[in-house]
């Protein structure tokens, strides 16, 4: 595994993923009963954006200016985006950044921990030893957070169903493996078998449309509960950029989250576009009955 997310932290994909994740956590918390949050590919939890420009051997073009950087000082964001940006800004300041630009960016585990109530619990998996070590250091003083340096697909099986009887699962792999979509489909099938009511979120890149449609077909073959997919592109289909956008599949979405996130995604299409042709779309793969 060579992937290091800190080179990409705060980019347009993180913005979409984290804005939706914050909204999902808020929706889960409409009920008093706690829930388990499982992150199968948790990363390190905290990212120093100053290191994004430093590759292993060469300088790199940081990606965060085209993501969180465009929202950082925006004064008129939709509520869903404003909520996410406020959390990111609070974390940045708590880490000691006094500058005008963002420096310290919270990953998914840190955002969820910032929102978690005493009755909510986090189970984090990270396979890469260095990233897992950084994740443990990040949460060394935090309660209600379980961290395992292990394969998240396998680890997920041991978490469901949880004692809380409610779960929010984020599957956010690096997509380095050729069969990553197949691994995700198997993990989703097993998770739904163990806990049919679990809310499961899957992030995926938009690089080859055919692979995404085949992934959707595999999911539909599982006899899915209500499920929708939200996609954001920042360039048009003819643009040479390899990853033109990204998407998120949400299985068993909390009530009305689609209506809350769709206007935010539409706003992001304009705010984060890198060339003509960027857009946002939400479509139901399996409609609510």
Structural class: alpha/beta
Helical coverage, percent range = 25-40%
Sheet with the most strands: spatial strand order: 5-4-1-6-7-9-8-10
- Based on the structure, what is the oligomeric state of the protein chains? single chain
Q: Would you identify the CATH architecture?
A: 3-Layer(aba) Sandwich
Distance between the termini: 41 Å
Arithmetic mean pLDDT: 94
The CATH homologous superfamily is termed: Vaccinia Virus protein VP39
- What is the fold-level CATH name, i.e. the topology? Rossmann fold
Count the E strands.
10
Spans of at least 5 consecutive residues whose pLDDT stays below 50 are none
**CA gyration radius, whole angstroms:** 18 Å
Note down, in words, how this protein is organized.
This protein is α/β, with parallel strands linked by helices and 289 residues long. The protein has a single domain, classed as Rossmann fold, CATH 3.40.50. Helix content is 36%, strand content 19%. The chain has an eight-stranded mixed β-sheet with strand order 5-4-1-6-7-9-8-10, sandwiched between helices. The mean pLDDT is 94.
